[in-house]
Design goal:
heterodimer, A: mainly alpha, MetI-like fold, two-stranded antiparallel sheet, about 0% strand, B: mainly alpha, 2 domains, flat
Chain lengths: ~325, ~325
């Protein structure tokens, strides 16, 4: 930012918010959200990822139209093979050992995996935001307890933590109303939410800690606002950026965690539903016998989805950070 | 400094106490050791069961059982596994050694190449190399290890073997030696470690290249770099003496934390490649509900994490005189 001196001799400071529009003589004010959208659009990969992700989401949501066969429908023999037939016109991505169409199963599985990802992200964002905001504002015991538990949980390998907690929660009969059946979708969603909300809480706590000493919070408190009003009206709206970024990361985290569990045989029972994790764990068995289609297609779709959400998260991070220069 | 280290080490004891107690409760609620015992010994008589319960301290409340376990653990009486009834320590020791070898091999590779890429990318910011390596690292971080593992297995173990008409897999996919092999053989050992090593190294490489790039860029934009250049020092010297040395400080502490996490952190990769380290040890013990094996595993992993956390702090203070440990 350089100082420009007008002929009259008075100093003018060019403002960042004054844009090209201003120069053309059109007086338009650019709201922070418009600026955020503009910064997001500058991140080319994020924009492309958003479009690809929306396409994947549409295909998955419209599964009854986009799939060719049912989730567990067994096809009649292709050629003379009643299972594991390679890609053909009858089954674009080939079939698995029970001669089920892989293409359709990937789409059906996407429903379950995306549902898990979004459900976990929403639940843990709500819980994490609430706890993080209260802990940051009130401090004291709650804050200490939150930070210590999070430290403990973040230190251990995720898979170990998931397995130990999974077996513990499934044995606690009085939690059955919350968790439902072991190997059900609900169990996975609750289990992953329990691990995920802490990350969001930590982030929100950090933002709240830096915000709570600011003048507008002081002013609001001086006007007699209660803690809950300060949280709802001031702290949460001002930390919405980091919350949304951590929400996208939670989607990825949950999808990956679910498939990790499934990969090692602790996932959703195929009786309940097929998820991408289930397909990936089938892929594990197909490697040594060289059935490449069972490995390549599920892995490709899975990685593409994760990559898209990660890039979207990256773009959002740039978008919500007003200090972001173009160095990315 | 010494006082600081001693105090942190003393803190290790209460921390471990809390961690092991929580882990013990979680395991005891989640897995029933008696059920695991009966699964392994279906024809155990009532007297057998009674004896097993008293030897392993399975009578009484969970806190009582915990203190029974703790007493035995501290006195070096680590007991025997439920499955196979083998002593816990020798197995655990082997697993630890194997994991350390794989972890150091792959982290060494990953850190070396990661740092190199990060340095080049930061020195040539906005160049083609920079954008390709940054995006590449981002992509690599988005691929979970089990996916890269099965894809690598498919390519190098299955299809390479078919294409080149080999009579044995181009690269082996599981274990550390071919079945029936005895003794030490460096070539074979490395050959068996390539695929799991690469899977871990890809992730490490991606993390470190991003981290190094960010750290070096921050240093590059600092005032003392301008001062150094203004003094008329050659660009080479500015980069090696001023920029790199400072940029490596946060990376070094990060590496110390990472090495501490190796011991328990390769669970996924080890299990896919059947590499007999701590990860395979854990999953086997977990599947068998074998708490005599699980508890020492957790203690060792926790100690490694806490100790290397301390190492990271001490190294940081040592490298950066601005940091004072109190």
């Amino acid at each position: 930012m350089t100082e420009t001196i007008s002929p009259a001799g008075d100093v003018q400071l060019p403002d960042d918010a004054f844009d090209a529009d201003q120069a053309e003589g059109l007086v338009t004010s650019v709201s922070p959200s418009r600026m955020a959208v503009r910064r997001f659009r500058r991140h080319k990969l994020a924009v492309v990822s958003l479009m690809v992700f929306l396409a994947i989401a549409m295909i998955v949501i419209l599964a009854p139209i986009t799939t060719r066969y049912g989730q567990i429908e067994r096809l009649p023999a292709i050629g003379n093979k009643v299972g594991n037939s390679p890609p053909s016109w009858k089954a674009w991505f080939g079939t698995d050992d029970l001669n089920r169409d892989l293409y359709s199963r990937i789409i059906w599985g996407g429903r379950v995996s995306l549902l898990i990802g979004i459900a976990v992200a929403v639940v843990s964002s709500i819980v994490g935001t609430a706890v993080g905001a209260i802990a940051g504002l009130r401090g004291g015991f709650l804050d200490d307890a939150l930070m210590r538990t999070t430290d403990l949980f973040l230190a251990f390998p995720t898979l170990v933590l998931l397995l130990v907690l999974r077996s513990m929660f499934s044995s606690l009969k009085w939690l059955k109303w919350l968790f439902g059946d072991l190997n059900s979708i609900r169990f996975i969603v609750v289990l992953l939410s329990i691990l995920t909300w802490m990350g969001t809480a930590r982030i929100v706590r950090g933002v709240v800690l830096s915000l709570k000493e600011r003048e507008f919070v002081e002013a609001s408190r001086a006007l007699g606002a209660s803690n809950s009003r300060i949280i709802v009206r001031h702290l949460i709206p001002n930390s919405i950026g980091p919350i949304i970024v951590s929400l996208t990361l939670a989607v990825v985290g949950a999808i990956v965690a679910e498939s990790t569990l499934a990969f090692f045989g602790f996932g959703i029972d195929p009786v309940y539903a097929t998820s991408w994790g289930g397909l990936l764990s089938d892929a594990k068995g197909a490697v040594i016998v060289g059935r490449w289609w069972l490995v390549v297609f599920p892995c490709a779709v899975f990685v593409l989805t994760i990559l898209c959400v990660n890039f979207i998260g990256d773009g959002l991070r740039d978008a919500f950070d007003p200090k972001q220069d173009r160095s990315h | 400094m010494l006082r600081y280290i001693l105090r942190r080490l003393l803190w290790l004891i209460p921390t471990l106490f809390v961690v092991t107690f929580l882990a013990f409760c979680a395991l005891r609620i989640g897995t029933d050791p008696l059920a695991s015992f009966l699964k392994q010994n279906p024809r155990a008589s009532l007297a057998n069961i009674k004896q097993y319960k008293s030897v392993n301290g399975l009578n009484g409340t969970i806190p009582e059982q915990y203190f029974h376990w703790l007493r035995h653990f501290v006195t070096g009486n680590w007991g025997r596994s439920i499955k196979g009834s083998t002593p816990v320590w020798p197995d655990l020791k082997h697993a630890m050694a194997n994991t350390a070898v794989l972890g150091l091999f792959s982290s060494g590779l990953g850190i070396f190449f990661g740092l190199s890429i990060g340095i080049i990318a930061a020195l040539r910011q906005y160049s083609k190399f920079d954008s390709v390596s940054s995006t590449g690292a981002f992509v690599a971080l988005s691929i979970p290890p089990y996916i890269s593992a099965i894809v690598l297995q498919l390519i190098f173990a299955v299809y390479f073997t078919r294409w080149f008409n080999l009579d044995h897999p181009f690269l082996p996919t599981s274990g550390i030696y071919p079945p029936g092999h005895h003794g030490f053989d460096l070539i074979l050992r490395i050959k068996y470690m390539i695929l799991p090593g690469v899977v871990v190294a890809i992730q490490t490489l991606a993390v470190y290249s991003r981290y190094m790039r960010a750290s070096l860029l921050e240093v590059k934009n600092s005032e003392y770099m301008r001062t150094a250049r203004a003094k008329g020092i050659s660009e080479r010297r500015v980069i090696f003496r001023h920029a790199l040395r400072n940029a490596l400080i946060p990376v070094t502490t990060f590496a110390a934390l990472d090495i501490g996490a190796i011991i328990g952190g390769l669970v996924i990769t080890e299990n896919i490649f059947g590499y007999p380290g701590m990860g395979v040890f854990f999953l086997k013990a977990f599947n068998n509900g074998d708490y005599p094996q699980l508890m020492p595993w957790l203690v060792i992993v926790a100690i490694a994490l806490i100790l290397f956390n301390l190492v990271a702090d001490v190294v940081y203070a040592f490298l950066d005189p601005r940091i004072r440990l109190a």
